[in-house]
Design a protein that fits this description.
The structure holds two protein chains of two kinds. Chain A folds into four domains: 265 residues, 4-Layer Sandwich (Metallo-beta-lactamase, Chain A); 173 residues, 3-Layer(aba) Sandwich (Rossmann fold); 77 residues, no CATH class; 118 residues, TATA-Binding Protein, CATH 3.30.310. Helix content of chain A is 28%, strand content 28%. Chain A is built from 18 helices and 33 strands. Among the domains of chain B are: 75 residues, no CATH class; 175 residues, Rossmann fold (3-Layer(aba) Sandwich), CATH 3.40.50.10890; 48 residues, no CATH class; 78 residues, no CATH class. In chain B, a hairpin with a 4-residue loop joins strand 11 and strand 12. Chain B is elongated. The chains are: A alpha/beta, B alpha/beta. At the A-B interface, helix 4, strand 7, helix 8, strand 23 and helix 14 of A face helix 12, helix 13, strand 23, strand 25 and strand 26 of B. Chain B: This is Beta-Casp domain-containing protein.
């Protein structure tokens, strides 16, 4: 069994996330994103790799979307409405609610500003969203009889989820984008300790370790405050959802505390509408924000109002949230053109901008002029503030997650190639987990776990659960605290309980394999147990120290007199104990026992097991009858050799 | 597996309560309170009646009875009961009596199926011996907590009136007192068979409630949780109420579905998810509210299995459950409009959250369309939070409500109505804001449906003589007794919602192997026609033993372990057997055998267990193959086992082999020879 992972997007790059995984015959598409940096067909994943005949319904079992960002959901309406995929699509409730807003916003930008040919229409978006099945966190969704999926909180944006998928015994997690530290409005990613064959994780910040966010939040607030205090205008290009709400909470709270009256605007009504969604979905935010629902919903911003186009050139300071985020066009570009030439104004940039956007140009060194197209040039004199907080996990977070889940294999996507390679090395060397970072259109195949199913009898299960205590004596040298007694040897008992699961697997023709306890097997076979044992009557030299008169009277006897019987066991025990220091010999008075080895004095004249008569001096010998089973063969012969080569002193 | 029905409950507010013993774990389903029994208490006396009055009147009644002597006691009972028959004391609360017969420390798991099912939970959790894990859906836990908080706060009014509770048994619980109660009330105190006095408890405190909530483990719908590695537990939406659920319990030996009150098409809560109940071996059917009609069943049985799902879906799609519900709501609304038009007010003491939320929306629409500017008041200590909460839980609501989320509208209309000041929310009747805003006629939603607690008592006293006013009762309220203290009544009465449920061919479609069915309902449903499943009937306080379905549990063997197995073939029985050793892991209800740490491959190949008996001839042959020669001496001395024989070995050394039917003893002087003989013997035996 194998898991086949075909990377259609976000392989060694950021943008158009799309991975198709075949797991025990089930095929899942994780994310269906578009690339913001391209305008041609490269913006969509190459869907033809899924099915040459473009029969997507039969080649995919479901699509799973992790969150509403366009690089994760942007190609979905195209894939369902234009390419014609009609199978199930899963996303969380917030993603289902918010993704159409993102798509619609993007579509408008494409059509209105760039005048591009329409890839999909509003109707397409609506139709596409109808096919989406909303899921809750941790809800176990049975896609079909074999395929099971489950969402876990990812903390990247509202409703972002990591997805677990399981088919048979093979299981995997696709993280989407996630954040391991809680931020102002979202909690940290959360997942169960799962048994995984494969983890596909994002690696946006594969090479970065970030410190606390609060310092950078303060920096941002200071920059904004300074700007508005100086009468400047602040342009915050953001996407409609996510960052806008996070920064609004931050600013709204700051405005309250500092008693600022400068207006905060949301452009084009879109984001105000989005707040409505956020209010209903407040249970998907961080614990702190969540608790505010009854008294004052944190997404009821007090200082935020709608922006009107006529306000662009109005005098006085203001703060404006405008879409799209990377100033790739649309309203944010329009405002940027008007505000950029003034030094008192401020433009904030998100942590990451796709190459080709104005945001990206501003980030890579501060240019004085930006060429918009052949005819338009913008003077950039305003201040630029780069937001350095990003809702992605850093390298430490990725390592923590990988370590926590300890999957058998890791695939890195959604990152920059050199950093991914470094991280891959770290995962392999530090965690000893096989790691890959395939490029787009590459495919990785990994083995998946598989279990053989069998029935287990009650007796077997019970025997496995039986405690199996082992006691071993040790002595611990301990320095007493008082020091007066010096080093003291404290004997202590070590108790271990290693349960042994041992049984017999029976495979009968045309029947299911069954595991039974060994006692049950004989019953099944209707056979009787046949015990194979060893026996040996072992001669041992005896030295009699105190010769009494009575023994002189019977000089020729081979055997010892009855009163001596038990008296010889004790010296033997001492002898064996000193030679076999590690073993625990049980003294039963009449006989000694060690594991299955059993020794007692033989009083018979003619013991059948007295094989040897090699002993020279019979008068000085006693015989010990020994018996043992095959399991203790080695031990038994060792004891016998000790016995044969020793001199016992009879009292 | 053992199953005991502790209580069949009674209706929406008093769900059934059961104890299940599965895989060695005790699982308690729900821990409700019978709040309908509250009606035996008099509502909080009005200002004119002081405690002194109450005591003397109480005394008077007792005295009159004393003088009338025991013979006439019965005659007194036959008299129509009036308000004076009620108990004038701080109310106690009636828990499930049979639950007290169980040792709480032996309960392992508590599963709560609805907000109503947890009202008695603090009684359990405050017991220091209680250590069970409690599972509740997130929404049910929140709503249940609000209901309990409201209960505690409403009860405060009594406490303030009667003073702190005496530690001893209250007067009314003494046998000479309750003997005097009219039979209807006495039955409520003691239960049908007169054993339920022990179920009465004084209300838990706010602190107990708070502590209880910290012990609750909250789940989402269809979230899998695992108890002790063995039971995989999942809550599946039942449609009864927001957060209400049925339970799936997967144990190694059987998968159990617990189905309590379920609604296929709810107007607010997420619908009954019957698909998720597929694959259960056993269904415990515990929906006592269902009005069963057998005709439906007959029709469906003709269809073959493959069509069952389609049929079920069809029968659901054209069901009129919801339309009937809507009609009922519309009827109440029109009654309410009539009342306010004639200058009366409408009092709606309803605590079913779904009915409350839908009535709010409907009445507002009716008022608007009638052009009436009548205020709607919601008075409850938890109303504000409840209303805010219902608007942030789209995941727990029905499809239509979820659609509102996706189109960016509020989930319930009350959000806008509150903003527009059409609905006013107050924590209590004496809130200053209420006093300023109060305007009659009006429509008031408030607790409590028993008419003994909360704002309803005060408002009912105000309006009970007004023939233009309307009181809307829950259909579970026993109007005769509930209205006693407010008589004579001139107010109009309306009943809210009888939830009609058609019986669905559900059980047949789910195809369990067996079904546990309540005996009372069993009489009304015939399962005689070709059943694929067996039916057992249960009745209250009787333990049902259900024999295990499977002899063996499922065990999964890791591939690496399975690939290392050394199979040996037993020819005569066509069996392949192998010794299996590993580490048993029990997780998520699955037994898994993984390869253990110890590596002793050498001993693995050596058989430990032998059977059969060595034939002397074969044994000699096997020995000689190994270069060992000897001769057989048939043992004559051993009379008991005639097959006993002794093999004397001379070459290469002296040794002795003693063979009997049950065992062989090898005696040799050196290790090498002994082990070679052993090998030879093992070759003629069978073993593993």
């Amino acid at each position: 069994m194998a898991i086949e992972c075909l990377v259609l997007g976000a392989g060694q790059e950021i943008g158009k996330s799309c991975v198709v995984v075949t797991i025990n015959g089930k095929r899942i598409m994780f994310d269906c994103g578009m690339h913001m940096g391209y305008q041609d067909r490269r913006r969509y994943p190459d869907f033809s790799l899924i099915s040459k005949s473009r029969d997507f319904d039969n080649s995919l079992d479901c699509i799973v979307i992790t969150h509403f960002h366009l690089d994760h959901v942007g190609a979905l309406p195209y894939f369902t409405e234009v390419c014609g995929y009609r199978g199930p699509i899963y996303m969380t409730y917030p993603t289902k609610a918010l993704a159409p807003l993102m798509l619609e916003d993007y579509r408008k930008v494409m059509i209105d500003q760039r005048g591009e040919e329409e890839q999909f229409t509003s109707a397409h978006i609506a139709e596409c969203m109808k096919k989406v099945i909303a899921v809750d966190l941790k809800q176990t969704v049975q896609v079909d009889k074999e395929l099971q999926i489950r969402a876990y909180y990812a903390g990247h944006v509202l409703g972002a989820a990591m997805f677990y998928a399981k088919v048979g015994d093979a299981a995997m997690v696709y993280t989407g984008d996630y954040n391991m530290t809680p931020d102002r409005h979202l909690g940290a990613a959360q997942i169960d300790r799962l048994q995984l064959d494969l983890l596909i994780t994002e690696s946006t910040y594969a090479g970065t370790i970030r410190d606390s966010k609060y310092a950078r939040e303060r920096e941002f607030l200071k920059a904004v405050h300074n700007c508005v205090a100086g009468g400047g205008k602040v342009l915050i290009p953001t996407f409609a959802l996510g960052r806008a709400q996070e920064l609004s909470i931050l600013l709204d709270d700051y405005w309250e505390r500092m008693n600022l009256k400068v207006p905060i605007y949301f452009s084009a009504g879109l984001t105000i509408q989005a707040n409505m969604y956020y209010k209903m979905l407040i249970s998907w935010t961080s614990q702190k924000v969540k608790e505010t629902y009854a008294t004052h919903n944190a997404f009821d911003f007090k200082n935020v109002r709608n922006f009107d186009r006529s306000l662009i050139d109005a005098p006085g300071p203001c703060v404006l949230f405008a879409t799209p985020g990377m100033i790739s066009g649309g309203f944010s570009l329009e405002v940027f053109k008007r505000w950029a030439p003034f030094e008192m104004n401020l433009v904030t940039l998100p942590g990451y901008c796709v190459a080709g956007t104005i945001g990206h140009k501003l980030m890579s060194g501060k240019p004085a002029k930006i060429d918009l197209d052949k005819d338009t040039q913008i003077d950039v004199r305003c201040q630029i503030h780069q937001l350095s907080f990003s809702p992605h996990t850093d390298a430490k977070g990725i390592m923590d997650l990988v370590k926590f889940l300890s999957p058998k294999h890791v695939i890195l996507v959604h990152g920059e190639k050199p950093k991914m390679a470094t991280l891959k090395e770290r995962i392999q060397s530090e965690l000893g987990i096989q790691c890959y970072h395939p490029a787009n259109k590459e495919s990785v195949s990994i083995p998946s776990s598989h279990f053989v199913k069998a029935g287990a009898s009650n007796a077997f299960i019970r025997s496995c659960l039986n405690p199996n205590f082992k006691f071993s004596k040790s002595s611990l040298e301990e320095k007493s605290d008082s020091g007066s007694q010096g080093i003291k040897s404290v004997p202590w008992m070590q108790i271990s309980d290693e349960r042994v699961s041992e049984g017999i697997l029976v495979l009968e023709k045309s029947k299911k394999a069954k595991i039974v306890h060994q006692d049950e097997l004989l019953h099944m076979l209707k056979k009787q147990k046949h015990e194979v044992q060893f026996a040996y009557c072992c001669p041992v030299h005896i030295e009699k120290v105190e010769k009494t008169e009575t023994t002189d009277l019977i000089p020729t006897t081979d055997e010892l007199s009855v009163p001596d019987k038990s008296s010889l066991i004790k010296p033997l025990l001492e002898k064996l104990s000193s030679e076999l220091s590690e073993a625990k010999i049980h003294d039963f008075g009449e006989h000694l026992q060690l594991e299955s080895f059993h020794v007692s004095i033989c009083l018979k004249d003619n013991c059948p097991y007295r094989i040897t008569d090699s002993l020279q001096n019979k008068s000085k010998a006693a015989f010990f009858c020994c018996s043992w089973s095959a399991a203790d063969e080695k031990l038994a012969w060792r004891i016998i050799s000790i016995m044969e080569n020793c001199n016992l002193t009879a009292n | 597996m053992k199953f005991t029905c502790l209580s069949k409950g009674g209706g929406f507010h008093f769900p059934p309560c059961h104890m299940l013993n599965v895989s060695g774990f005790r699982v308690l389903f729900d821990c409700p309170l019978d709040l309908s029994a509250l009606t035996i208490f008099a509502p909080i006396p009005t200002d004119s009646r002081t405690i002194g009055d109450e005591e003397s009147s109480d005394f008077a009644i007792r005295e009159s009875v004393d003088t009338e002597a025991g013979v006439r006691k019965r005659q007194k009972i036959e008299k129509p009961i009036d308000a004076n028959c009620l108990i004038y004391a701080q109310p106690w609360y009636k828990t499930v009596n049979n639950l007290h017969l169980w040792n709480v420390s032996f309960i392992d798991v508590v599963l709560i199926s609805s907000p109503m099912g947890m009202l008695g939970l603090p009684y359990l959790t405050r017991n220091k011996d209680f250590s069970a894990k409690i599972y509740v859906t997130e929404a049910a836990a929140r709503l249940g907590q609000l209901m309990m908080e409201d209960l505690v706060s409403m009860h405060m009014e009594y406490r303030q009136f009667y003073g702190p509770e005496e530690s001893s048994v209250p007067q009314w619980m003494k046998s000479e007192e309750f003997e005097l109660l009219p039979s209807a009330l006495r039955k409520m105190v003691l239960g049908k068979d007169g054993t339920e006095l022990g179920g009465w408890m004084p209300l838990y405190s706010a602190a107990h409630l708070k502590d209880c909530m910290t012990k609750v483990k909250k789940l989402r719908y269809a979230e899998e949780t695992c108890y002790n590695g063995t039971l995989v537990i999942k809550a599946i939406s039942s449609g009864l109420e927001i957060g209400a659920c049925n339970w799936m319990i997967n144990s190694p030996k059987r998968n159990i579905a617990y189905v309590s009150g379920s609604i296929f098409d709810s107007g607010h809560a997420m619908d009954f998810d019957y698909h998720a109940l597929q694959g259960s071996d056993m269904i415990i059917y515990s929906d006592f509210s269902t009005l069963l009609t057998t005709e439906d069943n007959e029709q469906s049985t003709s269809s073959d299995d493959n069509n069952n799902w389609e049929e079920l879906t069809k029968s659901l799609s054209n069901n009129d459950e919801s339309s009937e519900e809507r009609e009922k709501l519309a009827f109440i609304c029109s009654c309410a409009i009539d009342s306010v038009k004639s200058g009366g007010s409408v009092l709606i003491p309803i605590d079913q959250i779904g009915v409350l939320l839908q009535l709010l929306e409907q009445i507002s629409i009716f008022l608007k369309s009638s052009g009436l500017e009548i205020p709607i008041y919601i008075i409850s200590s938890v109303a504000e939070e409840l209303l805010a909460y219902t608007n942030i839980i789209p995941e727990w609501l029905c499809k239509q409500r979820q659609e509102k989320l996706f189109s960016g509208e509020s989930l319930f209309a009350h959000v806008e109505l509150i903003k527009e000041k059409k609905i006013h929310v107050f924590p209590a009747v004496h809130s200053p804001k209420l006093l300023i805003n109060w305007q009659e006629p009006c429509v008031v939603f408030c607790p409590h449906w028993s008419l003994r607690l909360g704002p309803a008592v005060h408002l009912l006293r105000r309006w009970c003589r007004d023939p233009n006013s309307l009181l809307v009762l829950e259909d579970e309220t026993d109007a005769d007794i509930a209205l006693l203290p407010f008589k004579p009544m001139s107010m109009k009465l309306g009943n809210a919602l009888v939830k009609l449920q058609k019986v669905k061919p559900l059980l047949k479609t789910l195809q369990p192997k067996s079904v546990l069915f309540p005996e009372d309902l069993g009489n009304r449903v015939s399962f005689t026609n070709i059943n694929s499943f067996s039916v057992s009937h249960y009745s209250e306080n009787e333990t049902l033993r259900i024999p295990s379905l499977k002899e063996s549990s499922e065990l999964e063997i890791a591939t690496d372990l399975a690939s290392q197995l050394h199979w040996s073939n037993l020819k005569q029985r066509n069996l392949n057997i192998t010794r299996l050793k590993g580490e048993l892991l029990i997780d998520q209800g699955k037994h898994r055998l993984l390869s253990g740490n110890e590596q002793d491959g050498s001993s693995q190949n050596k058989p430990i267990l032998h059977w059969g008996s060595p034939d002397p001839e074969n044994l000699l042959a096997a020995l000689s193959k190994m270069g060992i020669n000897g001769h057989v001496e048939q043992s004559m001395t051993d009379a008991e086992s005639d097959e006993a024989c002794i093999v004397h070995v001379q070459d290469p050394n002296k040794a002795l082999i003693e063979v009997t039917a049950t065992g062989t003893i090898i005696s040799a002087a050196d290790e090498d020879l002994a082990s070679r003989i052993f090998e030879a013997i093992v070759n003629v035996l069978e073993g593993i």
